[in-house]
Amino acid sequence: ALRSGGPCRSATPICHGSRKGRNLPQAMAAQGRDGDLAARFAPMASDLAAHEHAIVGELTAAQGKACDIGGYFRPCPRKAAAAMRPSATLNAIIDNALALV
Fold this sequence. Notes:
Number of strands: 2
Shape: elongated
Mean pLDDT: 80
Structural class: mainly alpha
Order of helices and strands: EEHHHHH
Strand content: under 5%
Oligomer: single chain
Largest sheet: 2 strands, parallel
Number of helices: 5
Distance between the termini: 34 Å
Helix content: 55-70%
Low-confidence stretches: none
């Protein structure tokens, strides 16, 4: 379930608190001072808006589940990265944006 407001008390809902972080690509694409910057963020903003429901679903499904990261003090980088990036849809959007840089 989605929530607005302050921090969540449980791990299950996705806490928004503020939509600022989720709206940053849209804001960068919509700003009028730097056309090049707007053009760089427009595809990412469009992809995020088009796939928001899927991304939220993937993030919600990952909440509250135990995961093996290969250790506490020295986690396996591959396992930790997989645990920290549970949305394949969001990962693809980010990876595509980074490939254009």
